[in-house]
Design a protein that fits this description.
This protein is mainly beta. The protein contains one helix and nine strands.
Length: about 140
C-alpha cells in the first residue's frame, strides 16, 4: 500500500511541474489563440533589442489592448496590454512607463520584470515567447 501511495505522490509532482505551462486564467481578460512574429531588424521594433526596453504591438488576431514585449536583458517577456484587475472598459489599457506598465483605470503599476503590482490579485497576463535569430515569436 505504501508503494502505491508513494508512486501516486511522485506521479502527481511530475504532472504538476511543467515549466512550459503558463497560467493565463484571469476573469477580466479573455484567452486569445494567436501567434505573432516581431522582427527586431525592422526599425519599428529595433528598440526592444536593448535591455529594459519594451514595445507595444496590436496584432490583428490577438488581444484587443495589444501585447507588450519586454527585454529583461537575458530574455524577452510578453504580456497582455489589458489591465489584469479591471473589467475591459475604455480605461482598462496598460501604458508603458519605463520598466512598468500602468493601468489607466486605477493607476496600478505592474513591474515588467515580474508582472506583479503591489496589493493586486492578478499579475499581468503573460504569453509565451521564443527567439529565433532576430525574430521574437509571441504566442498563446
Amino acid at each position: 500500500m505504501k508503494k502505491y501511495l508513494l508512486l501516486f505522490i511522485i506521479s502527481a509532482l511530475f504532472i504538476n511541474c511543467n515549466k512550459d505551462r503558463v497560467s493565463n486564467e484571469n476573469p477580466f481578460l479573455p484567452n486569445y489563440n494567436f501567434s505573432m512574429e516581431v522582427n527586431t531588424n525592422l526599425p519599428t521594433y529595433n528598440q526592444v533589442t536593448f535591455a529594459s526596453n519594451s514595445i507595444k504591438i496590436y496584432p490583428p488576431n490577438g488581444p484587443s489592448r495589444g501585447v507588450i514585449v519586454f527585454n529583461t536583458g537575458s530574455s524577452f517577456l510578453a504580456f497582455d496590454g489589458g489591465c489584469p484587475n479591471q473589467d475591459l472598459t475604455s480605461c482598462s489599457t496598460l501604458e508603458v512607463s519605463g520598466i512598468n506598465a500602468v493601468c489607466t483605470c486605477d493607476s496600478a503599476s505592474y513591474n515588467l520584470f515580474t508582472g506583479l503590482a503591489a496589493g493586486k490579485q492578478y499579475p499581468l497576463k503573460q504569453y509565451r515567447t521564443e527567439v529565433i535569430g532576430t525574430v521574437i515569436r509571441v504566442y498563446n
